[in-house]
Fold:
Amino acid sequence: MLDRLIIEFDKSLRTLLATPASQRPHPGQALPETLTEKQEKRYAAALMRVNHTGEVCAQALYSGQAITARDPETIATLQRAAQEETEHLAWCEKRIKDLGSHTSLLNPVFYGGSFGLGLLAGTLGDRWNLGFVAETERQVGNHLARHLEILPAHDQKSRAIVSQMQADEAAHAHHAISHGAAELPFPVKVGMRILSNIMTTTTYHL
Structure:
């Protein structure tokens, strides 16, 4: 347990303070930049900032869950998902910077809250732990689908990133379900959506 705490603490520092790296090529990196208007860039950057904070929250959630998970296979599932979320962080952060904007000032707050939720989820047992993974990824997938609808149609660079993220999140959810994830109670799902709405609303501006 002490080793897990040290590892996850190191991950938290790297998530919040270090520039994330991606083992896979950045989606859309070979595409030309098509956003030229300042207003369009600001809008796209705000949406990508929301996506970036969503990945920060996912990192924190999975880190908390990994500390309290019991089954080695569950821990491995969480670690695999967290690795891809790190890549998502790298993609979003680079896109935000390319658009001349910044990541959210509220990331430490949301990281702490998500980490606490992950610790709680892990103590409930591995089926519920995986259930939180599956539901988180479902909600993130719906959120990304919405962004694909409202991003500027010609912003192919941002769209390539969001599309690949959406595919990865669906795979995470499927993997968690195939390993025995429990279906979360409806009130828990609603609570998660409310927290998600608070995050998206605030980080769009900050």
